[in-house]
Fold each of these.
Amino acid sequence: MKFDFFKKKTEGKEESKIKSVAREWADAILFAVIAATIIRWLFLEAFTIPTPSMEKSLLVGDFLFVSKIHYGPRTPKTPLQVPLTHQKIWGTNIPSYVDWIQLPQFRLPGFTSIKQNDVVVFNYPPELDYPVDLKTNYIKRCVGLPGDSLKVVDTQVFINNVVLENPVKMEFRNNIVTNQDIKERVFKNYDITDYERTNYGYIAHTTAKTAKEFEKLPFVEKVDLLKMSSDQVNPRVYPKNARLFNWNEDFYGAIWIPAKGATIDLNEITIALYRNVIENYEHNDEVRIENGKVYVNGEEISQYTFKQDYYFMMGDNRHNSEDSRFWGFVPEDHIVGKAFFIWLSLDKNESFFSKIRWSRFFNLIH
C-alpha cells in the first residue's frame, strides 16, 4: 500500500510538471504574438516586393521593413482579425477577418510628414471590397503632395511648373533593334531583368544610362525610348474620360491634388476629376451625381470642401507601373508607412547561395 501511494503521488507530480511546461510554452507563444502584433502596428512591418514597378530602386524579391512611426501609426479599423495576417489566413483562401465591427480610424502622431520622392507603402485605394486597413499593400514613390499641381510633359514630372528631381535608377521602356538573338547572360550583365522578344529585337525596361551602354554593343543597331506622343490619348489613364482629357502616361495633366480644407467649385471638369474621391474616400453617407449635379446626403451642392489630404504616387519603372496616373489619388487614411530599409533580397532566377543579393542587405531606401 505504501508503494502504491508513493507511485500515485509521483505520477501526480509528473502530470503537474507536464502541464506546467505546456503552460509555459503557451504563455511564451501568446506573449510573442502580442509583442509582434504591437511592434507590427506601432513601429515596423515587413513587406516584400512582388512586381518590377519600382525597379531599379527596389527589386523583385527585396524584403524590407516599413516604418510606421515616421508618419504615425493608424489605429485599427477592423479589430476582429487573426493576428499577424492581412486579408487571408496563411496558405488558404479563408478570410482572416470579419467586418462586423468597424471602428473610427485615427492616426497617432509621427515625427515627420510625407515628402516628395519618399517611397511609401499604402493601401490600394480602388479596392473597395475590403476595409481600408485590409486593402492590398502597394509601394510607390510620392511625387505629388496635397495642394500641388502636377503634370507630366514628355515623361518628365513637373510640380507647380517646376521640374521634379528624378529617381537615380528610374527606368523606361526601350526598343532594342537587332537582328540577332541576345543571350540571357548579356541582359544579366547589364542588369536588365524586364525584357521580351519582338519581331525587330527586344523591348526592355532600363535606366537611361544602361540604354546608352547597351546601344554600344556591336550586334545592337540602336536603342530607342518608347514613349507616347502629346497627341495620343490613353483612355485608361485617370480620370478615364478621353472626351475631356486628352492625356496619356507620358503627357499627363495638369491635375490638382486635393488638400484637406480646400474648396472647389463643382462643374463638368471638377466632377470628372474628383467624383471618385467624393464618392469613395471622403466618408460621406450618401453621394449622388445626376445630370451634372452633385447631391450629398440628399442636398444639392455647388462646391465641395475636402475632408482629408491626398497624394499622387508613381513607380520608378515608369512604363511598367500601375499607379496614380491610372487610378487616381491616395487618401491620407490609406497611408501605411515609409519604406525604411532592405533586410534581405532574393533573386528567384538563381539557385542556392547565388539567390541572395548580399550587396542589398541593410540598404536604406531612398
Amino acid sequence: MPKKEGLLSKHFIKLILLEFAGLVLLLFIKYWNQDISVFQFNWHYTGNLINIITSGVVMLSLICVRLINPQYFYAFSKVLMRFSVAGTVCLVIGRLLLLFPIQVPVIYLFNQPVKRIMVGGFFSLYQITQIFIIIYCWMIIFGSTGNNLFRALIYNLGIIVVFVAFVLFFLLSYKTLPLQKKNTKYDVGVVLGAAVWPNNHPSPILISRLQKAIELYQGKIIDKIQLTGSNAPGEMSEAEVSRAYLDSNYALPKTDIIIEEKTSSTTEQIRYIKNELIEKQALKNIAVISDSYHLPRINEIAKFYNVKLHTFGVEIKLNDQIGIVYHLRESLALMMFWLFAL
C-alpha cells in the first residue's frame, strides 16, 4: 500500500503552486510577446478564458485525486510533478527563443519561419502537459492503474483533435458584423500582405486584396492605401510588389500609397496598426482588407489588442481540397494565438 500523507502534503502543495505559477507565467508571456502591459489584461478574451479554465481544471483534478483516491496520490505525484515541471520549462524555452537572437537557419515551412514553428512547438508542449495531467488524474481517480502513460497520450491526441475541430467550426460559422455604415469613410485601408510568386509577381490572393482596396479607394470609402508585408529570402517585399502592381495598373497619387516592409505575420500587422496608425498617427477609422476566411482571426487578434477595426473581406474561389487546407491552417493559427498570442 502506498504511503499516506496529510491532505496538504508537500507534494500536493508543490503541484498546486507550480500549476498556478505556470498559468501566471503563460499570461505574462502572452502580453510580453505582444509588447502589451499586463495591466491591460482582458479577463473576457476567449484565449485568456481558455488558459484560465484549463489551469483551473488541472488544479481541480489534482484536488479531486487527492481527496477521492489518496492512496495512489503519493505514488503518482512524482509523475505528475515531472510533467508539470516539463511544461513550465517548455514555456521558458519558448520565451527565450523569442527573447534572444538565437541563430536559426532562415527556412520557411508552411509559410512560417522555422524559428516561429520551434517557439510554437515548445509552447504547445506546455498545453499538451496540461491536458495530460488532467487525463492522468482522472484515470487515477477511476482506478485505472495499468499502462496509463500510453492511454493518456492517446486520449490527449483525441482532445487536441476535438479542439482543432471546435476552432474550425468557429471559423466556418463566424459572422462578421456589418461594420461599415452608410457614407462612412475611413482614413486608410490596410492591405494585409500575402504570398509573392517567383520573379516578384503578386499571387492571385494578393492581387484580389489589392483590387478590393482599389474598389474602396475609387468608391471614396478609404482615403489612402496602406500596403504591408516583408519579404522571404531572394524576394522583393510583399509591400513593394503590391506597390509595383498598383503603379503598373492604376494611376494613383504617390502620396495616397503608403508601404510598410517589416511585418511578416498577421499579428505583427495588427500590432503595427495599433502602435503606428492608431497611437502615433491618431487615426480613428481604419479599414483592414483581407480574404473572408482570414477575417475571424484578424478580429480575434484585434480584440486582444483592444482595438476596433473595420474589416472588408475578399471572396476567394477555392476548390474543396484547397479550401479545407486554408481553413485548417487558419484554425491552427487562431488556436496558437488564443493559447499563446503567437
